[in-house]
Amino acid sequence: MKTNELTLKKAIELLDKKEISLDEIYVDTLAAINEKNKDLNVYLKIDKDALEKAKKESNKPLRGLPIAVKDNFLTIGLATTASSKVLDGFMPPYESTVTKRIKNSGGVVIGKTNMDAWAHGSSTETSDYGPTKNPRNPKYLPGGSSGGSAAAVAADMTIAAIGSETAGSIRQPAAWSGVVGLKPTYGRTSRYGVVAMGSSLDSPGPITKTVEDAAFLLNYIAGQDSNDGTTSSLPIPDCGKDLKKGAKDLKIGICYIDHPNIKATPVAKAVEEAGRVFENLGAKVEQVGISSELEKGKILTHEHAIGVYTVVQRGEVSSNLSRYDGIRYGQDRSHFGHEAKNRIMLGTFSLSKGYSDKYYNFAQKVRSLYIKNFKELFQEYDLLISSPSPSYALPLGSLSDDPMFGELQDMLVEPSSLAGITGISVPCFRDEKTNLYLGLNIMGDYFQEEKVLQAAWAYEQASGWNPWVKI
User: Fold this and answer.
1) What is the spatial distance between Cα 160 and Cα 208, in angstroms, rounded to a whole number?
2) How many helices (H) and strands (E) does the chain have?
3) Which of 14, 38, 299, 340 is 20 to 30 A away from residue 365, measured at CA?
4) Active-site entry in 10, 36, 53, 70
5) Active site residue: 84, 96, 123, 145, which one?
């Protein structure tokens, strides 16, 4: 086995035992990048001094190991473009809080990964630098917007990675690429230094090979930040300490699989099977009925969330992208791609006089219903499970000119993202013909990452779908 194929925790263990060296890890990782990147288009830039930096960090918790970072995190010394030609070659004057904490903990940002431009999309096809391909099957998409980070992990082109989620942008590419993706509670991780997309939604988080790695990495990136007033002051538990507590006696609700578009599909069958795995682990599992209106004991349909997210996200996009005028930094606005222009126009319209009450304010009212719905459900259930996506990864070129592609691919995670709760995607099935994966989305209440990770670890060990667990 090559050292780049190791999990984060296993690499640390072997480094501590002196059975491997950082030199070996970086040689193997860079070899994988050199071999695969031209075809997969995962990395936009690589830090050529990564190994030298790593040797100075070997005594810190992350031991100098290579961490791939989505290209919307500001990094000193490495250009940050958010995969848009508007910011082509932009060198940040300061470091994002998340990457600063990674570096302070001994991690090394080996490179910046491709993404949907400005994080607008769920395919990585809107990148101005070309699409990323799915390492599991290069004829298919890796998902998005954190598609580059998910692909980097899936292809063993890094030990672990960082992504960001606004509505599915960690969990959906993790599912499509067959890796683990953790979306923390909104405010658990800092947005400072992250190119803003939807400011009331954006959540940085880890994309890793195993649940254990996600828990370990979260410990070093989470926490209150004086530069981000939306971060929580709640203490950060050691998410790895009681990871192996298991799922016994948990009450788990299965969501969305009775919807006509999901029922009897491979996605529904995989989630049902995951429910049986949890039952065998000692959990109580039952299906949560779906409802088109707020109803006690049922989950509000995801269909309303598509419209709510579309209006809220595009309103915030129109505000956030207004600063890119070619004066302070970057190129002028003619360099915006088709998707960005669409979102700016729709967002500006929905916020304009005479329309903000009809669209934006109304959308926020419906959003509050999702928040109330999850609050009530988590009084009855410890966790909720579903799929992060309604299908397997789609073929390259599927984006086409569909203005709602992203919303439709993320429709099963949009309710939880609008509510700001935490969730994790873990592999739950692999199709032998295509080698494509499905993911299981395990959702918990606000700041219940510890419980979500415990259940995810128990499922990962019992189901056998994660290829790295056998290592």
Assistant:
1) 5
2) 14, 13
3) 340
4) 70
5) 145
In the DSSP assignment, the letter for residue 4 is G
The helix/strand/coil state of 212 is helix
- Would you say residue 244 lies in a domain? yes
Contact 148, 123 (CB under 8 A): no
Look up 145 and say whether it is catalytic. Answer: yes
Q: Is residue 471 part of a domain?
A: no
Q: Token digits for 44?
A: 């936009």
Contact between 162 and 69 (Cβ < 8 Å)? yes
The single residue of 83, 96, 169, 177 carrying the catalytic annotation is 169
List pLDDT tens digits, range 139-153: 999 999 999 999 999
Q: Is residue 469 part of a domain?
A: no
70 catalytic residue (yes or no): yes
pLDDT tens digit sequence for 199-245: 999 999 999 999 999 999 999 999 999 999 999 999 999 999 999 99
* CATH number of the domain enclosing 405: 3.90.1300.10
Q: With beta carbons less than 8 A apart as the criterion, state whether 175 and 388 touch.
A: yes
Q: Residue 470 domain-assigned?
A: no
SS3 338: helix
Q: Give the burial class of 108: count Cβ atoms within 10 A of its Cβ; 0-12 exposed, 13-18 middle, 19 or more buried.
A: buried
Number of domains in the chain: 1
Domain residue limits at 246: 3-463
Q: What is the pLDDT of residue 408?
A: 79
